[in-house]
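// run 5 | inverse folding | seed 20
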């Protein structure tokens, strides 16, 4: 297998930077990430804490072992290989590094959006009681406050995240600096709202009855990630694993060259899956059916 080329180093560096920004919400969920290599389709059994410990004062009768009531359950999370393939002809490959970086950034962005969409796909597949119907572009601060209230009432932990549809985030923005200050207007987003970290996104599934905005605590959603295996190695010129800084996500870059066509093929790849551990710790807004 060939050594990593300069163009590959640029492609991977661009992907790491792009994915680090796009997938920034992921560390806020429950993570089960390992550099263990698995096949294209696998099932990972994730332990889930189902009963909270009760704290107490120490006393000589109970010592340290009584009331140790932590219960665990398991959640089966299916993971599969996610890829974003692309190609460049010889003349495109030899253009300026700026052009190559732009090309890599666009493909990494689509790769990241597909991964983030899996959170919405998983949430759409389960019954979530805390649900309201509102158009994405009509999302209001009152809607967000109502979701926060529902999480409070269900006893969800306070480490909370809000994935807001891009159109909904725009509707939340104030029209004047006096409302929320210069920082919100300059960044185009709230950093926090009602105690929830806010992440505008365009990865939700667009369709009737689909979730476009999701609020949850960190224990509600499980992200499982493994290193993709090296397959088809006879045709590969390069297989380079890489890790997304600050997230730990295990990915790889595959590359091979078709001399007959003069085309360089590449792909970003990872093994990824999402499980819903505690639906009652999720509140959502969805499009009308």
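// decoded
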């Amino acid at each position: 297998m060939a050594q990593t080329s300069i163009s590959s180093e640029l492609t991977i560096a661009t992907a790491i930077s792009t994915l680090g920004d796009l997938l920034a919400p992921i560390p806020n969920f429950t993570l089960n990430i390992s550099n263990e290599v698995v096949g294209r389709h696998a099932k990972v059994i994730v332990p889930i804490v189902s009963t909270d410990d009760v704290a107490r004062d120490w006393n000589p009768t109970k010592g340290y072992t009584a009331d140790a009531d932590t219960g665990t359950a398991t959640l089966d999370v299916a993971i599969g290989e996610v890829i974003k393939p692309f190609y460049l002809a010889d003349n495109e490959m030899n253009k300026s590094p700026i052009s190559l970086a732009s090309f890599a950034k666009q493909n990494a962005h689509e790769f990241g959006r597909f991964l983030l969409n899996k959170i919405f796909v998983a949430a759409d597949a389960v019954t979530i009681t805390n649900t309201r119907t509102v158009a994405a572009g009509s999302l209001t601060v009152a809607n967000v406050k109502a979701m926060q209230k529902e999480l409070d009432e269900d006893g969800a932990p306070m480490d909370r995240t809000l994935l807001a549809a891009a159109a909904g985030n725009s509707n939340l923005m104030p029209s004047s600096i006096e409302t929320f200050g210069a920082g919100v207007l300059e960044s185009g987003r709230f950093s926090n709202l009602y105690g929830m970290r806010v992440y505008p996104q365009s990865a939700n599934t667009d369709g009737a009855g689909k979730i476009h905005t999701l609020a949850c605590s960190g224990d509600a959603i499980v992200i499982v990630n493994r290193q993709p295996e090296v397959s088809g190695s006879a045709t590969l010129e390069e297989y380079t694993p890489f890790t997304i800084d600050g997230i730990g996500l295990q990915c790889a870059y595959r590359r091979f060259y078709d001399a007959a066509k003069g085309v360089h093929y590449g792909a970003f790849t990872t093994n990824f899956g999402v499980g819903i551990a505690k639906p009652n710790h999720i509140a959502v807004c969805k499009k009308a059916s």
